[in-house]
Amino acid sequence: MTAALFAVFAIGLLFGLPIAFAMGGAGLVALAVEGKLSLLSVPQRFFDGINSFPLMAVPFFILAADLMTASGITTALLRFSNSLVGHIRGGMGHVNVVTSMLFAGISGSALADAAGPGAVEMRMMEKSGYDKYYSAALSAATATIGPIIPPSIIMVIYALTDSRVTVAGLFLAGVVPGLLLGAALMAANHWISIRRGYGSAHRPMAWSERLRALWKATPVLAMPAIIIAGILTGLFTPTEASAVAVFYALAIGLFVTRTLNRRVILKVLLQSGLVTSAALIIVSMASLLAWVLTLLQIPQSVAAAIGGLTRDPVAILLIVMVFVLVCGLFIDTLPAVIILVPVLAPLSDQFGIHPLHFAMTVVLNLTIGLITPPVGGVLFVMTSVARLKLEKLAHAVLPLLAAELVVLIGVVLWAPLSTAVPAWFGYAR
What we know:
This protein is mainly α. It has 23 helices and no strands. It has helices at residues 2-14, 19-34, 41-50, 57-70, 73-85, 91-107, 110-127, 132-143, 153-161, 167-173, 175-196, 207-232, 238-256, 262-295, 298-309, 313-328, 333-344, 346-350, 355-368, 377-386, 390-396, 398-413, 416-424. The radius of gyration is 21 Å and the shape is globular.
């Protein structure tokens, strides 16, 4: 049964089968080979995988991000970011990073960040004299900040998979790592810009111009503040917060920017529906695979194997980091969370690792996997948008990937980077 499970899954990936069907097919074949369980349990597992109230946050956050993008808020964010960091060497690259950090508080998705602001930022960098592959690489790297700074779709899925953590706790745990990712990418961009002669420094904007840019961006910047404040004060749950985000995005588009109309809204609903459908199919199929893995006692076997190597918590986290990084090369983030978390999360209890620290190690790992070939989802988005060659883009992203790995190692080695903010708000014991 175990051999059939992994063989079918590997063959499915090898032949380019969509990841959802590779997982569902592997689980189905494994159950058929085992023969003791009725295959009627398969559709029930599919349904159970998505029959969750907290999971409703996923389509709402996707819709909110699409509505905000359609509302034309990218321009306001770009102008505000430019007023802050545009005068520094490599200014347009820094604007790219800061804009992505601000948009991360709206989208919760790296793919949404890459396809929305990322595409605009890339074109602006090209017009300013940056190499097109570096522009796309930086836009891809900054898009990975989206799932780390709250809200985050990946964190919602993680919290559903591991009862040791809450959505609110994970959101707060992502604040410092997300800011560190932005700082690391800005440092890398500054170094690369000096070496290549990008973006000559110019006079900083006057404070009056900065305040004007801030005022125009305020309606956008208020959205993540409303979401986080509402969750922390108990005014609404994370799922209800996602619905609030949708209504807020509608209000911005209808009454502030006035760019939303019936035709645009219908187009956004269709686009969000397609993305949501794909995400939920992945979740339902992955839930079947995770259930089969549990039946086979794979989590216990993995925990025993890792525990046999060392008993040191830091060493355990480093082993997990390498393992998840390798998995992230071949599996997309959502299915990886559902498959790997039930297998690896019990290690946090067994070796005394804080659940939020462990969670951020896994989430940050998988997010970085979005810019690592061969299954780098964000890289594929950028190649599609800019008509670039994947091989050259993968090479251009390497120094930025190295900067993100430095942040990952820091998060692994120093737990307070993940746990200090949640502890301050009472979400970490």
